[in-house]
Write a structure and sequence with these properties.
By secondary structure, the protein is α+β, with helices and mostly antiparallel strands. The protein folds into four domains: about 5-95, no CATH class; about 105 and about 255-325 and about 555-565, D-Maltodextrin-Binding Protein, domain 2, CATH 3.40.190; about 130-245, Dipeptide-binding Protein, domain 1, CATH 3.90.76; about 335-535, Dipeptide-binding Protein, domain 3. The chain is about 30% helix and about 20% strand. Helix 2 runs antiparallel to helix 3 (about 75-95), helix 9 (about 350-360) packs antiparallel against helix 11 (about 400-410) and helix 14 (about 495-505) runs antiparallel to helix 15.
Length: about 575
């Protein structure tokens, strides 16, 4: 790693190389330190850093020679230095137009979305590294991706997908029907850890009449099958590279994986052999910054070019007033919940769950969060979903009624509740407010912060928790309440039957009617305390174009992003 800096005691630039470069795993993606040339210029490869340093040295020496030759005064010296700064600034701007630095709150636990549900994985890889047969655009509509189109049989059981020709994985593996059959068979396998494994359960058979056609026969109708195949859980992976995708993902997308610097960043580079349009951005770095103040400072200094899903509402005015930054507000299917483990008493009693809903002043929480655009919800559906029905008044704030329900359920004052919190700002702030409200009805809540991998393992995978504050970000995910083994343990035969009817429906009006019925059922049963839906703020450099304003799926696609010329 090389760093360049200006000496204020001597009018020249210096470049330095650390004595032990072997300590860095990947020289191309070495972490940037204060004053480092890469942080300032967006340069990443050593050969460009060397070129830059030699260029700066040459220009500086030339200007100093002119000064000495002409016997320049201090004013002339200042003018020359200003000219040099203009040259440096313009060169910097040129360099930035080929690179992009995006901030994320959480570091992913892995990089394979087909085996792990973590949202940071999808933020980095969905639509960038991995692709599916279909894709969900910013407008929420399903469009072809690695399939060029499809037909459906009259009975809704047979889907014939025409596959895109001349597509290759980043390692050169050819994409064809055998890849589709492998990926979906793997996702449905008994030992699969795919978060959306139920999506693949209805598949009866995948036939390959030729390399560029995949015929998928279903056991029963799935009215939204192409939509489900657009989720990154249905990303198409090759058998020869799939075992290593968790640490070195290999897909067919517009960007190739370069490196993962644990605790710091993931770097991607443009796939110049991509089947689609060539991205304008060559190098993309996703940096992990969990502290809101550090996030804001990185944006203000230009260290970060964009931060999607920015959640520190108190810092937004400062960012919005900065001349070089733009703040956009969009929609995202995010549902903030107090999740209750119904496999543990007393949460198997609906009276207790309803009591907690009455005990929490959700309007007060919204005011405390201070995020304009936050919307109360009363069921597991985001207001951005076209099937959304407003049930937010189902449990108005009523501490007295909460105490009555708790007493009827045999929950005595002083009941101890442990609330597990993932390392996200909304969870910490929400947990503190919830604990204060619950204390008013006699519940002694303890907040337990967990690291993200620990939360995924302990809470999501093992179900070893009483309650947790978490945001579900998947779109239209009513199916999780019909799953027999989901982490919060809700089981209701009536809901499962209703969902089965909804899943098979193909008519939009019928699907809407059934969706409303499902939302109303959840509002009545209150398996979790449904709090509110957060807006989707993105803070970005004002010269950056093409970043999604709305986020209908878990993805931060950058292939369409470019710098203003």
């Amino acid at each position: 790693m090389m760093s360049c800096f200006h000496s204020y005691r001597e009018p020249r630039w210096r470049c330095a190389i650390p004595e032990h470069p072997e300590n860095h795993e990947d020289t191309k993606d070495t972490k940037v330190h204060e004053g480092g040339a890469r942080k300032v210029l967006g340069l990443r490869e050593p050969k460009w850093v060397l070129t830059w340093c030699f260029f700066v040295s040459f220009v500086s020496s030339w200007f100093m020679g002119m000064i000495r030759k002409a016997g320049s005064t201090n004013v002339e010296y200042a003018s020359v230095i200003m000219m040099a700064c203009v040259v440096l600034a313009s060169t910097t701007a040129m360099a930035q137009k080929t690179s992009l630095s995006v901030g994320l709150v959480l570091e992913p636990p892995g990089l394979d979305p087909t085996i792990n549900p973590a949202d940071p994985i999808r933020s980095i890889t969905n639509g960038n590294v991995f692709e599916g047969l279909t894709w969900i655009g910013e407008d929420g509509k399903v469009v072809p991706r690695l399939a060029t189109g499809w037909t459906v049989s009259a009975d809704g059981l047979i889907y014939n997908f025409a596959l895109r020709p001349n597509v290759r994985f980043h390692d050169g593996t050819k994409f064809d029907c055998s890849i589709v059959r492998y990926a979906f068979t793997r996702a449905a396998a008994p030992d699969s850890t795919n978060a959306q494994k139920p999506f693949f359960a209805p598949i009866k058979e995948i036939a390959c009449p030729d390399p560029l056609h995949a015929v998928i026969t279903l056991k029963q109708k799935v009215g939204n099958f192409p939509y489900e195949l657009a989720w990154e859980d249905a990303a198409l992976v090759a058998p020869n590279t799939e075992p290593g995708n968790a640490t070195h993902p290999v897909g067919t997308g517009p960007y190739k994986f370069v490196s993962w610097r644990r605790g710091d960043s993931v770097s991607l580079i443009r796939n110049d052999e991509y089947w689609g349009a060539r991205p304008a951005i060559r190098d993309v770095t996703f940096r992990f910054i969990p502290d809101p103040l550090a996030e804001a400072n990185a944006l203000l200094s230009g260290e970060l070019d964009a931060f999607p899903a920015f959640q520190a509402a108190d810092l937004l005015p400062k960012l919005r007033n900065h001349a070089g930054l733009t703040v956009t507000i969009g929609t995202f299917p995010i549902k903030l919940l107090l999740v209750l483990n119904e496999l543990r008493k007393p949460f198997d009693d609906v009276r207790v769950r309803r009591a907690l809903a009455y005990a929490i002043d959700r309007e007060g929480m919204v005011q405390a969060f201070g995020m304009p655009g936050t919307t109360l919800i009363g069921s597991h559906m985001s207001p951005s979903d076209p099937d959304y029905v407003d049930l937010s008044r189902h449990y108005p704030y009523d501490p007295q009624k909460a105490q009555q329900l708790l007493a009827a359920a045999g929950v005595a004052p002083g009941f101890k509740l442990n609330i597990a919190l993932p390392p996200i700002d909304y969870a910490k702030k929400g947990g503190e407010l919830i604990a204060a409200y619950l204390a008013q009805v006699g519940i002694d809540a303890t907040l337990t912060p967990l690291a993200w991998p620990q939360w995924l393992s302990q809470v999501y995978a093992q179900g070893a928790f009483q309650a947790t504050v978490i945001a579900h970000v998947e779109p239209n995910d009513l199916d999780i309440y019909a799953r027999p083994h989901y982490y919060f343990g809700y089981h209701d035969a009536q809901y499962a039957a209703l969902f089965h009817e909804y899943e098979a429906a193909g008519d939009p009006a019928e699907r809407h009617r059934l969706s409303v019925a499902l939302q109303e059922k959840l509002a009545d049963d209150e398996p979790n305390v449904f709090l509110f839906s957060l807006p989707y703020f993105t803070v970005l450099n004002s010269k950056l174009h093409g970043m999604w304003v709305n986020r209908p799926i878990s993805a931060i696609p950058v292939a369409g992003v470019s710098w203003e010329k």
